[in-house]
From TrEMBL:
It comes from Neomonachus schauinslandi (Hawaiian monk seal). Residues 1-23 form the signal peptide. One of its GO terms (cellular component) is GPI-anchor transamidase complex. The gene is PIGT. PANTHER family: GPI TRANSAMIDASE COMPONENT PIG-T, GPI TRANSAMIDASE COMPONENT PIG-T-RELATED. The keyword Transmembrane applies. The keyword Signal applies. This is GPI transamidase component PIG-T isoform X4. The chain crosses the membrane at residues 459-480. Pfam families: Gpi16.
Length: 511
């Protein structure tokens, strides 16, 4: 019994005081947000932001335990003495003319720019090693960054966090415009989230839906920020952002209405248990488009107004930490519908399906006199299957002509006539009354040049393969089917007999 007392005291000392005081508050926090914005063009933009803040100086403190902040990125900050890191992968181009200004702009492809601490002696070496490590973390081609595509800007890329100085010799910037963004880049990006894609807003990050969009951009931003108002100490902030633009007419089958399930094929069920804030913001600002108004379901409990990008916006707020937001079925499917007054006609749009049906666009419009109307359609060129190319693919592919049907006002009021007694050409222009006549016009077919592969390469491969097969097959067939016979040596011919006669006459032995 006496030997058990020191052991119990030792265990209590290791565990610390029990029942006294409070546990030390966590030094890191996570906030997740989703902003859904109906765009002026009718598309829908969704912007995710996961912000992790860690009250620790990674470059001065020896950190061995990571809770929310990714260990892979924390070790990069310490090893390469990083001040700031900004990395983005973008597929597509943000069309400001039709979608308005974006929250976060990024170029197509991969972009990387880094500020190093002034303690780094060889910036170029650290830059090269850092790009190689990031290439492995995000499964990207960042290892192709070298001196041929690296620059040191002096005005465009200022530090976004705390900065004691702006010596641009510690800044490096590079872009890989041909970098293709795919699921291999999204998967490691999601693994950096504290809840991965298991809970919270990250459950909506379904790869097949995120890449079936008009625009896709994911980024990682690391910077130091002030920990308190007087900025006596610093904290590290990691912001993971993802922006996508959905074609509402395609996802909603020709309508501008949308919902979370229609866009992401999933709904929200619960917040991330590690998050201190989990909210969804829906832009319900009236754009005064054809006197339309927005209807959001379920109705928001609170709204928020602010000036964003120079425009006053109104947002509906859904707090996932509020148990009243998630209903009894543990399902939150936000829906937005456009309410508009009845009209004589809606634009009718039927999206195409690959190799099943073409696009159909019908518009009923009233044109003023002496006016011009321009209709433009955005499209992307894609590679077809090799069996779908015509014998002359370099000639291009034809698109069916457009049809213009109109009721043209009559200049002269026509008298009602008997169609049976009128000339034949009168029956070609039927009209319901004498005030207008019906006209149908057709445009020219459109010739579009699509990307065409080099068909000579398969031809060369086929010829080479056939030649090799023919030579090999012929040789083996010859060896397998040929029969060999052993011939006995002959006694000699006429020349040999004549030679022996001559040798006998001379007294020489015969051959």
């Amino acid at each position: 019994m006496a030997a058990a007392l020191p052991l119990a005291v030792l265990v209590l000392l290791l565990l610390g005081p029990v029942g006294r005081g409070h546990a030390e508050p966590p030094r890191d926090t996570l906030r997740e947000e989703l902003v859904i914005t109906p765009l002026p063009s009718g598309d829908v933009a969704a912007t995710f932001q996961f912000r992790t803040r860690w009250d620790s100086d990674l470059q001065r403190e020896e950190v061995s335990h990571y809770r929310l902040f990714p260990k892979a990125l924390g070790q990069l900050i310490s090893k390469y003495s990083l001040r700031e890191l900004h990395l983005s992968f973008t597929q597509g181009f943000w069309r400001t003319r039709y979608w308005g200004p974006p929250f976060l702009q990024a170029p197509s492809g991969a972009e990387l720019w880094v500020w190093f601490q002034d303690s780094v002696t060889d910036v170029d070496k650290s830059w090269k090693e850092l790009s190689n490590v990031l290439s492995g973390i995000f499964c990207a081609s960042l290892n192709f960054i070298d001196s041929t595509n690296t620059v040191t800007p002096t005005a465009s890329f200022k530090p976004l966090g705390l900065a004691n100085g702006t010596d641009h010799s510690f800044l490096r910037y590079a872009v890989l415009p041909r970098e293709v963004v795919c699921t291999e880049n999204l998967t490691p990006w999601k693994k950096l989230l504290p809840c991965s894609s298991k809970a919270g807003l990250s459950v909506l990050l379904k790869a097949d839906r995120l890449f079936h969009t008009s625009y896709h951009s994911q980024a990682v931003h690391i910077r130091p920020v002030c920990r308190n108002a007087r900025c006596t100490s610093i904290s590290w902030e990691l912001r993971q952002t993802l922006s996508v633009v959905y074609d509402a007419f395609v996802t909603a089958q020709g309508k501008k209405d949308w919902s979370l399930f229609r866009m992401f094929s999933r709904t929200l069920t619960e917040p991330c248990p590690l998050a201190s804030e989990s909210r969804v913001y829906v832009d319900i600002t009236s754009y005064n488009q054809d006197n339309e108004t927005l209807e959001v379901n379920p109705p928001p409990t609170t709204t928020y107004q602010d000036v964003t990008l120079g425009t006053r916006k109104t947002y509906a707020i859904y707090d996932l930490l509020d148990m009243a937001v998630i209903n009894s079925s543990r399902n939150l499917n936000l829906q937005l519908k456009w309410k508009s007054p009845p009209e004589n006609g809606y634009v009718h749009y039927q999206p195409a399906q690959d190799r099943l049906q073409p696009h159909l666009l019908e518009m009923l419009i009233q044109l003023p006199a002496n006016s011009a109307t321009k209709v433009s359609i955005q499209f992307e060129r894609a590679l077809l299957k090799w069996t779908e190319y015509t014998p002359d693919p370099n000639h291009g592919f034809y698109i069916s002509p457009s049809v213009l049907s109109a009721l043209v006002p009559s200049v002269v009021a026509a008298k009602p006539v008997d169609w049976e007694e009128s000339p034949l050409f009168k029956t070609l222009f039927p009209a319901s009354d004498s005030s207008s006549h019906f006209v149908r016009l057709y445009t020219e077919p459109l010739l579009v040049n699509l990307p065409t592969p080099d068909f000579s390469m398969p031809y060369n491969v086929i010829c080479l393969t056939c030649t090799v097969v023919a030579v090999c097959y012929g040789s083996f067939y010859n060896l397998l089917t040929r029969t060999f016979h052993i011939e006995e040596p002959s006694t000699g011919g006429l020349a040999k007999r004549l030679a022996n006669l001559i040798r006998r006459a001379r007294g020489v032995p015969p051959l």
